[in-house]
Design goal:
This protein has a single domain, classed as Tetrahydropterin Synthase, Chain A, CATH 3.30.479.10. It is 24% helix and 34% strand. The protein is built from two helices and five strands. Its EC number is 4.-.-.-. Keywords: Lyase, Metal-binding, Queuosine biosynthesis, Zinc.
Amino acid sequence: MLVKRVFNFAAAHNLIKYHGKCESLHGHNYRLEVTVKGTTNDEGMVIDFLELKKIVKEEVLNILDHSYLNDIIEQPTAENISMWIWNKLEKKLKRKNCNLYEIALYETENNIVYYRGE
């Protein structure tokens, strides 16, 4: 079973190793989807949505929301941000019955990165 929770955060960045429009400072209203895969536990849940929300808020949103991403991630492309989020959440979401399955990061509604920890 796949369980997904959606989050939003705003942040600014500039791509220092890129030559083009995104080289300049700019911001995005990101949409983050965190998906956990597993089987239901004794309570009939893969993971409690409230617990998932708390972990993502503490490990990711409290750090990234309204931040300058370059202070956190050297080259904050959507790909690198997705990997950073995965690394922050993977161990925190590992249970007997479930684990982190996928990060989907929407930089815009048309530009999306999916990451599964490869």
